[in-house]
Amino acid sequence: MSTQPHTTTPQDRSDDEEPLLSVDDLRTRIRTERETIHAVDGVSFTVNRGETVCLVGESGSGKSVTCESLTGIVPQPPAEIIGGTVEFKGRNLLEASESTLRSIRGTEIAHVFQNPQSALDPVYTVGDQLVEAITIHEEISESDARERASELLRQVGIPNAPTRIDDYPHEFSGGMQQRVAIAIALAADPALLIADEPTTAVDVTVQARLIELLRELTDGGMSVLLITHDLRVAAALADRVLVMFGGTIVERGPIEALYSQPAHPYTRSLFDSYDGLSRRGDRSARGDIPTDGCRFRDECPHAIDACAGGDQPPFYTVDDRKTHGASCLYYGPEHDPAPILHDDAAVNTLIEEPTDD
Ligand code: ADP
Ligand code: MG
């Protein structure tokens, strides 16, 4: 493995166009009776128009709190957004009023969650809920809205949409409920879809179909911020990947670059321990993570004294790719990353596996 160049990477940007979403130094902490958790601790990234960015990392790394901080849906308290900017279409959402945020949520930025029930009201038919979501942002007659609702159900792959529109959520299977939830999210034609583990609660076959649906939607030009702990889901959908650990992003890059050469020791451990399907335990339950320097250093086989203290290490380029960066001192001018980049076997196995089961 060759020695890497020693420049730091700028905020990743795939072209000159202004990003749709630009997050800078986001910080959200959560106060519990026992402790203060630095759930999001200086997170920066962008999502460009038409791009799918995937936030990966094990349970407890801060993925959900990051995404829920963007539009202020993270429960405050116990959470508190203590710093950063979230620019969406040129406006800082962290300074927006609650009424502005409410009007942006569901129209400009839609959320889909792991559990579709959270988006569905059991006492209304899915048609009524879709019509409501459509008419919130559009001056449209009731009958046109119903027509569009039916079309949305068809688009997300609900068979017999014109009939099923009058059914209640409980009359759908879990996978179909998630499709309905996605249809509701799409009703307002949002510029950004934030999907938090949307395929996690369903079985593998349904998961493959939902991935197919999401792929069609992303091909259609919508921007998507997708959260997953499942590297295979990310492989199927992402243009760019952000790897999160301990409330920080530790590596970022285009999917092909990052998957062919995972660089940060945490990313490498994530790939090495990946068994195809299951998740690792919630690390937050496994003891304290440092809140300065490199958050991974206590578990890193390559840690050196310089990994402790101060800010998170800067993002250094990996293999001369400006858009692929790792927040790890081994990629900086003082060190040689060779000891980290030793074994590509596990990674190659993962990439060669089919993405649909
Ligand atoms: P992920 O989505 O990556 O699994 P989260 O963003 O949900 O992780 O959580 C990040 C950290 O914040 C974890 O340590 C988690 O335990 C903690 N956390 C999240 N929500 C709460 C809450 N409501 N109360 C206490 N701790 C929380
Ligand atoms: Mg989560």
TrEMBL record:
Species assigned in the record: Natronorubrum halalkaliphilum
UniProt lineage: Archaea, Methanobacteriati, Methanobacteriota, Stenosarchaea group, Halobacteria
Protein name (Swiss-Prot/TrEMBL): Nickel import system ATP-binding protein NikD
Its membrane topology: Peripheral membrane protein
Principal localisation: membrane
Location(s) in or outside the cell: Cell membrane
Reaction catalyzed: Ni(2+)(out) + ATP + H2O = Ni(2+)(in) + ADP + phosphate + H(+)
Biased composition (Polar residues): 1-11
Region (Disordered) location: 1-20
Domain ABC transporter: 21-271
Keywords (A to Z) from UniProt: ATP-binding, Cell membrane, Ion transport, Membrane, Nucleotide-binding, Translocase, Transport
Subunit structure comment from the entry: The complex is composed of two ATP-binding proteins (NikD and NikE), two transmembrane proteins (NikB and NikC) and a solute-binding protein (NikA).
GO biological process, one term: peptide transport
InterPro entries linked: AAA+_ATPase (IPR003593), ABC_Ni/Peptide_Import (IPR050388), ABC_transporter-like_ATP-bd (IPR003439), ABC_transporter-like_CS (IPR017871), Oligopep_ABC_C (IPR013563), P-loop_NTPase (IPR027417)
SMART domains, per database record: AAA (SM00382)
Pfam families given in the database record: ABC_tran (PF00005), oligo_HPY (PF08352)
Entries under PANTHER family matching the protein: NICKEL ABC TRANSPORTER, ATP-BINDING PROTEIN, OLIGOPEPTIDE TRANSPORT ATP-BINDING PROTEIN APPD
Assigned GO CC terms: plasma membrane
SUPFAM superfamilies the UniProt entry points to: P-loop containing nucleoside triphosphate hydrolases (SSF52540)
Annotated EC: 7.2.2.11
GO terms, molecular function: ABC-type nickel transporter activity; ATP binding; ATP hydrolysis activity
